[in-house]
From TrEMBL:
The record marks 142 as: Lowers pKa of active site Cys. The gene is lipB. It comes from Deinococcus roseus. It is an enzyme of class 2 (transferase). This is Octanoyltransferase. It comes from the Bacteria. Catalyzes the transfer of endogenously produced octanoic acid from octanoyl-acyl-carrier-protein onto the lipoyl domains of lipoate-dependent enzymes. Lipoyl-ACP can also act as a substrate although octanoyl-ACP is likely to be the physiological substrate. In the reaction, the free carboxyl group of octanoic acid is attached via an amide linkage to the epsilon-amino group of a specific lysine residue of lipoyl domains of lipoate-dependent enzymes. InterPro entries: aa-tRNA-synth_II/BPL/LPL, BPL_LPL_catalytic, Octanoyltransferase, Octanoyltransferase_CS. Belongs to the LipB family. Pfam families: LplA-B_cat (PF21948).
């Protein structure tokens, strides 16, 4: 656990199967929504998995048979976040900010983007959010996917930052249903393998700096 802020805690889950991490999310979300635990950012890596958001069209945006995915050791799970289909796997840093949001969804998404842009800037990369396309981009290639859900005024799910991710696995899907843009990673952009633990520490610090101006109060009920 990183002690980076009094406003929220950061918990490192290491490497965890997707559904196990989802159970942790639900448990923490319930406690945060009940005001029994401070807001929490969960950081984790997952074994290879495809997740289908509420807008996902499996027949269109997963472009290989399920049998093939199974042979490759890639699980598939439908979940309650927004968005379409996305990939998680080794070498990708996934973050689940379980923060109060209320109706401030757009503001919350801009804070998420800003924190990740700050982290990428540490590596000399000029990244940005893109209106109409959730996530963080370097040029026309997405380096971090973003997809959240809001229940009881509290967010869960979150972002997936490609660090040393196997980008070949993205060829099995149309990432987030976007057909005319690509996917990249820090490793590809910088031409070298990046220490995921280093990125994790930077993300924790950059969330602390970015969210110091965020309103963590719950809306009046």
């Amino acid at each position: 656990m990183f002690n980076v802020s009094e406003a929220f805690r950061v918990t490192d889950l290491g490497t965890l199967e997707y559904l196990q991490a989802l159970d942790v999310q639900h448990e923490v979300h319930g406690k945060v929504a009940a005001r029994q635990q401070e807001p929490t950012l969960l950081l984790v890596e997952h074994p290879a998995v495809l997740t289908l958001g509420r807008k996902a069209k499996e027949g269109e945006n997963i472009i290989v048979p399920r049998e093939f995915l199974s042979q490759q050791g890639i699980a598939v799970h439908a979940i309650e976040r927004g968005g379409d289909v996305t990939y998680h796997g080794p070498g990708q840093l996934v973050g689940y900010p379980i923060f109060p949001v209320g109706r401030r969804v757009r503001d919350f998404l801009r804070f998420l983007e800003a924190a990740l842009v700050k982290t990428l800037g540490r590596y000399g990369l000029e990244a940005s959010g893109s209106p109409g396309y959730a996530g963080v981009w370097v040029g026309d290639e997405k380096v971090a996917a973003i997809g959240v859900a809001i229940q009881k005024h509290v967010a869960f799910h979150g972002f997936a930052l490609n660090v040393n991710t196997d980008l070949d696995h993205f060829s099995y899907i149309v990432p987030c249903g976007i057909q005319d843009r690509g996917v990249t990673s820090l490793q590809k952009l910088l031409g070298r393998e990046i220490n995921v633990q280093e990125v994790k520490a930077f993300v924790a610090e950059d969330f602390r700096q970015t969210f110091q101006d965020y309103d963590f109060s719950f809306p009046d009920l």
